[in-house]
Sequence to fold (364 residues):
Amino acid sequence: MPVIKPRFEFSKSQKITRRSLFFALGYCLVLSTALSSCSEAKNNAQQSPAYSDPATSSNTTEKQTVRIVRSKQLTGLAVLEKQGSLEKRLEPLGFKVQWSEFAAGPQQLEAINANALDIASTAESPPVFSQAAGAPLVYLATTHSSGQATSLLVPINSPIKSVADLKGKKVAFQKASIGHYLLVKALEKAGLKLSDAQSVFLPPPDANVAFSQNKVDAWFIWEPFVTRNVQNKVGRVLIDGGELRDTGNFYSTSRQFYQAHPDVIKVFLEELEKAEIWTKEHPKEVAQLLAPVTQLDPSILETMHSKYNYGVLPITEKTITKQQEVADKWYSLGLIPKKVDVKVGFLTPEEYIKITPAEVLANK
Fold:
């Protein structure tokens, strides 16, 4: 497929550093557009001490750190950070929490593989690309789809009226993201292939600039980027993912962290489920709490609240089967170098019972 290279260039020294790290992680074949975050992951790994097993630590009184991705969407994870309940629950276990921000899902999983992050929150596709690169990923839990929270934007005065009009047009999205996956599904529904549009691989911050400067014809992106651009009269929603999305998000970790700290993971999932329920039941309070995070007015956030389906879901056989379908789709498109057996990243039912709170198991 034709690919438009971004105009956002880096210095020669930056390119060398990112390329070397990328090869070290084995991502050169499947996540080639996320080099900047890979370099960031390396720096974070150097600056943030890795967790240590209490049984082998020479100083067991020193708190360890669990590094969790920061959410800037209207989710229970964002509320969990603001409420601070997780920090209180983990303190008796000798852990403190560090919230880290990343551009998108692929960058999170690069960071996990570089030991710069412990718990990620991504859509369905980043884990597949990560597994294709050989990363020892573990799926922890999933979510409802919340498809309406991801939309295909076009400039406010664009002549594009339907997905079919994207033929030959430049469409921006983060490679291996939910935007990428939903674009494939939207084009197929319109009788087109991904190669019929010009793919512009850009992480969200760079895509936001390109879109605002009319350097691309469309952009598949999630909230709050969608609402910000609509509110600022920069773009309009062509379609949202409500009828397209057939998957949920995933919380994931490394095999090493799962094996060392299943107790921390269970506490995280317990507090996350509580935050999800609170978020669902308190739209006004959530809007006030997350207005500074999303940079949107509380009234707008209240309206956006209905775009999300709240609650943590357990991993089931149906979840695994659907994720295998996603992996097979990417392989059929030639976008991952080998066929992926997603089961390698999933635990056994018995292992899930040990780390999954009863409240989450009941959500089946």
The CA atoms of residues 316 and 349 lie 8 Å apart.
